[in-house]
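In the laboratory, one determines a bound structure by crystallizing the protein with its ligand and collecting diffraction data. In a computational setting the workflow is compressed into a single prediction: the sequence and the ligand go in, and a structural description comes out. We illustrate the idea with pyridoxal-5'-phosphate.
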Amino acid sequence: MKIQNERMSDLSMSGGLYEIFQQALIMERDGRKVVHMEIGKPDYDSPQIAKEAVINSLNDGFVHYTAMAGIQELREAILEKEQKANCIVADPNSEIIVTAGACEALMAFMLAVLDPGDEILIPSPYFSAYDDIAKIQGVVIKEVPLKFENAFELQAADLEKYVTSKTKALLVNTPHNPTGAVIGKEELLKIAEFAKKYDLVVISDETYDQFLFEGEHVSLYTLPGMKERTVVINSTSKTFSMTGWRVGYAIGPKEIIRYMNKVHQNMSTCATSFVQVGAVSAFQNGKSFTEKMVDTFRERRDLVIEGLSQIKGMEYQVPHGAFYIFPKISDIGLSSTEFCQRALEETGVALVPGNAFGENGEGFIRLAYACSNEEIKDAMALLKRFVEEL
Ligand SMILES: Cc1ncc(COP(=O)(O)O)c(C=O)c1O
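The predicted complex, in structure-token form:
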């Protein structure tokens, strides 16, 4: 009996992150102290006001299917946030859907827009779900290398080398996981010209739009001629530290959103009813919660940089957004997997090997600084000693 289809055989069933996380949990169970710098989630509780809204909603019996695209109040609250934060203007009735996290929006996009065999350009290293979602559907990823010397900022000129007659879409992620890079407006304008030249549909993953430490976040959607070809995806996961609530969204041209909604209807029908009510409250009342959290992450970013600057052989680019840094370890003489395994065993600091983020990640490691200042200081001191003793 063959229990998996051909496409599944292309999927990697273990990832560098998952393996390190499992190993870290076993070490903790055995009484070892571990600093978790492998996981990409804010270490905050969700806003209390959002929790209360959910409790009230449950008590009011708001427990049935909702409109497939999400409740009207939530679509409007999301668009208000997007208009204020990113100058995105869209019709709440036809140009937005609420999904189970940004991941469902990504899956719905690929199913609705791409056919098996179509190619999508993805800057690499990348958030590993892109690869899995593409492979599940038989979509072919073309990895466009992000270069250390460009501070990992995607360059439009590099995209030209990877476009073929089968290229149908381009994915852009800014602020970026795993490097923390933020693409400047000047480069985004060139990327927009490239997308128009080759008539590509663009998916703009703006999950970390609020995690910006300096400069500005510009949405490709707002650049001239891009609204008709761009789908923005985002969620409450990072913005309000609501990763487990599973509320995300996609904003795009109504012809695409209509088909994404069809996919979404058959995958999940609608996002969870009472959770949507909590998300309305987060969008309406959570701005200062997010701002305080991001201030803390800026401080942590600075602590990580201070620590890394004292470790010889570990070069890095200063991240301007998200909550990751992607130092280069290739000069140290270990593969990224060996480095992370040994660092975990010998120091208790859990990190992710860069090769978990695509073929261009080898020679790097990802540190997520979603932990306390004390933990960061300890981790940096431990890593310094570890590298010195290698
Ligand atoms: C770049 C990027 N996009 C999307 C997601 C998925 O977020 P969600 O929890 O909304 O599905 C993540 C989560 O880590 C991410 O890093």
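The domain at 65-285 is CATH 3.40.640.10 (Aspartate Aminotransferase; domain 2). Keep in mind that any predicted model is a hypothesis to be tested, not a measurement.
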